[in-house]
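Students often ask why inverse folding is considered easier than folding. One informal answer: many sequences map to the same fold, so there is more than one right answer. In these notes we will look at a single instance of the problem. The structure comes first.
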C-alpha cells in the first residue's frame, strides 16, 4: 500500500499526458466497436456525439497504443487492462467483440453497473476511471474535474450527520396512516433501528392511508403486518414490531431510544410518555391526523444544534465581470460556517394548559391558530369516547364535537366562535394527503433532531387540509 501511494504522486505534466491517453483510448474503443458492428451486420455502437459527426468513416484514425515507458506507474495500478500496463494489449485485443466493453474502459465502469452494449466514449465513462480519487492530483480535463470539498481538514458535516443517523434508535407508536408515513421517511433516511409499536388489529379503515399493510391482513396486528414492507424499503435498517400496549410499558423501556414518536394515543398517555422522555433526555414527538386536520408536537428539552451561515463578502468595486467575478460566484461554499445554537422546549402538559388570560396570550388571540383549540377538542373526544370520530357515527359524533367545543373553549377562557360549526364535518377518518404532509414534516423534524443540524420547529405544527396551509406555533407558559 505504501509503494502504491508513493507511485500515485505524479506531476502535472504526467497528469496531462495521462489525460490525453484516456481520450485516445476512447477513440480506439469507438473505432473497434464500429468495425465489429459492421462485421456482425448490426448497428454500430456509437455515442450520441459520434453519431452527430456522421458515419464511421469520418471518425479519426485510432492511434496505435503500445507500451509507453513515460506513462506514470500509478496508471498500471489503477487500470490493469490499459495499454502500457501488464496484459494491456492482450486485454484490448480480446475486447474487439461489440458485445463486451473494451478493457481500456472496463475498469471502474462495468463494476458500477454499466453492462455490455452501452455507448462508449461518454464523459461519464471517463469520470469514474481516475479523477474521483484525490491521490492523482487536480484533474486537467474540464469534464472530469471534481470540485474539492470546502471542509478542508475539518470534519465534514454531512459525514457527521449520517453517522448520527446510523447510530440512532427510534420508537414509533401507532401504525395507522400517519405512522406509516413517518416509518417510511425514517427508514429511507437510514436510522439504525426502528421499533414499530401498536397493540391494535388491522381494521377496514386502515386501507385508506396505511400503505405498509398488505392485502389480506384484516384482524392481524398493525405493527406485525407492517414489518415486511417496511423492511423492504431499506435492508440496512433494523425494523422490529412490538404488539404490546404502550400504556403498559415500564419507564425503562423508553430510555433505550434516542427518539420516541407517538401517534394515535390519548392525552393521558402522551403526557405520561413525554414526562418520561424529558426525565431521561429522550427526544419526544407526537402527531395525529383527524380528517383534513393534522398536528405535530416536539419536546427536545435543551436542544443544541448547528446552523450553516453564509458570509456574504463585499464585491470589489470596479470588477463586475470577468474571470475574477466568476470565481467569486463559484467559491460561495468556502464562505460557509457552522454556528452552534441552543433552543429550549416546554413539556406537552404545559403547552396544552396555556392560560389565555395573560397579556402575552391575549395578544396571540389577535391572529389565533384555531387548530390548537381543535386539537384540545379532539383529544377530549378521544379521552371520553376511547376512539376518534368515525364516519359510521357521523351525525352523533358531530353533535358531540360541537358540545365539547363549548365546554373545552369555555374552560380555556376563549370564545366558542374561534371554531366555526363546519369543523365538526372535517374531522373524520384519516386523509392520505394530510398524512403525507404531516408525516413528511414529522419525519423531517426527527431527522433534524437526531443529526443536530438546522433549527427545529418549536413546538407545534398545524396543517389545515381545507386551506392547504400549515402554521408553526410556539405555545408555552410565560
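Output (designed amino acids):
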Amino acid at each position: 500500500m505504501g509503494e502504491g501511494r508513493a507511485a500515485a504522486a505524479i506531476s502535472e505534466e504526467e497528469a496531462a499526458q495521462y489525460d490525453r491517453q484516456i481520450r485516445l483510448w476512447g477513440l480506439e474503443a469507438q473505432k473497434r466497436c464500429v468495425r465489429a458492428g459492421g462485421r456482425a451486420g448490426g448497428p454500430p455502437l456509437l455515442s450520441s456525439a459520434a453519431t452527430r459527426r456522421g458515419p464511421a468513416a469520418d471518425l479519426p484514425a485510432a492511434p496505435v497504443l503500445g507500451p509507453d515507458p513515460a506513462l506514470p506507474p500509478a496508471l498500471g495500478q489503477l487500470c490493469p487492462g490499459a495499454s502500457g500496463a501488464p496484459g494491456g494489449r492482450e486485454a484490448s485485443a480480446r475486447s474487439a467483440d461489440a458485445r463486451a466493453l473494451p478493457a481500456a474502459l472496463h475498469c471502474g465502469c462495468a463494476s458500477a453497473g454499466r453492462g455490455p452494449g452501452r455507448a462508449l466514449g461518454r464523459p461519464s465513462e471517463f469520470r469514474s476511471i481516475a479523477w474521483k480519487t484525490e491521490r492523482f492530483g487536480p484533474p486537467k480535463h474540464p469534464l472530469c474535474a471534481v470540485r474539492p470539498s470546502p471542509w478542508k481538514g475539518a470534519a465534514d458535516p454531512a459525514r457527521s450527520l449520517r453517522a448520527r443517523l446510523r447510530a440512532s434508535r427510534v420508537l414509533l407508536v401507532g401504525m395507522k396512516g400517519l405512522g406509516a408515513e413517518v416509518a417510511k421517511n425514517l427508514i429511507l433516511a437510514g436510522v439504525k433501528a426502528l421499533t414499530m409499536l401498536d397493540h391494535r388489529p388491522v381494521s377496514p379503515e386502515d386501507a385508506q392511508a396505511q400503505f405498509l399493510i398488505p392485502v389480506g391482513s384484516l384482524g392481524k396486528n398493525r405493527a406485525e403486518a407492517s414489518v415486511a414492507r417496511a423492511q423492504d424499503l431499506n435492508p440496512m435498517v433494523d425494523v422490529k414490531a412490538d404488539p404490546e400496549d404502550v400504556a403498559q410499558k415500564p419507564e425503562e423501556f423508553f430510555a433505550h431510544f434516542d427518539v420516541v414518536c407517538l401517534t394515535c394515543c390519548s392525552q393521558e398517555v402522551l403526557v405520561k410518555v413525554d414526562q418520561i422522555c424529558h426525565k431521561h433526555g429522550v427526544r419526544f414527538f407526537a402527531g395525529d391526523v383527524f380528517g383534513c386536520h393534522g398536528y405535530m408536537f416536539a419536546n427536545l428539552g435543551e436542544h443544541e444544534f448547528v446552523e450553516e451561515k453564509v458570509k456574504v463578502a463585499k464585491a470589489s468595486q470596479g470588477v463586475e465581470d470577468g474571470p475574477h467575478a466568476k470565481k467569486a460566484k463559484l467559491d460561495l461554499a468556502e464562505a460557509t460556517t457552522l454556528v452552534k445554537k441552543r433552543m429550549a422546549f416546554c413539556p406537552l402538559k404545559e403547552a396544552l394548559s396555556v392560560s389565555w388570560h395573560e397579556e402575552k396570550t391575549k395578544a396571540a388571540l389577535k391572529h389565533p391558530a384555531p387548530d390548537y383549540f381543535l386539537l384540545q377538542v379532539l383529544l377530549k373526544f378521544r379521552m371520553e369516547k376511547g376512539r376518534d370520530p368515525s364516519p359510521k357515527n357521523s351525525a352523533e359524533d358531530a353533535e358531540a364535537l360541537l358540545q365539547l367545543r363549548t365546554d373545552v373553549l369555555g374552560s380555556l377562557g376563549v370564545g366558542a366562535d374561534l371554531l366555526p360549526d363546519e369543523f365538526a364535518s372535517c374531522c373524520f377518518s384519516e386523509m392520505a394527503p394530510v398524512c403525507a404532509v404531516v408525516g413528511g414534516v414529522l419525519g423531517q423534524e426527527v431527522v433534524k433532531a437526531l443529526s443536530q443540524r438546522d433549527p427545529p420547529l418549536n413546538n407545534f405544527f398545524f396543517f389545515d387540509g381545507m386551506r392547504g396551509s400549515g402554521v408553526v406555533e410556539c405555545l408555552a407558559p410565560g
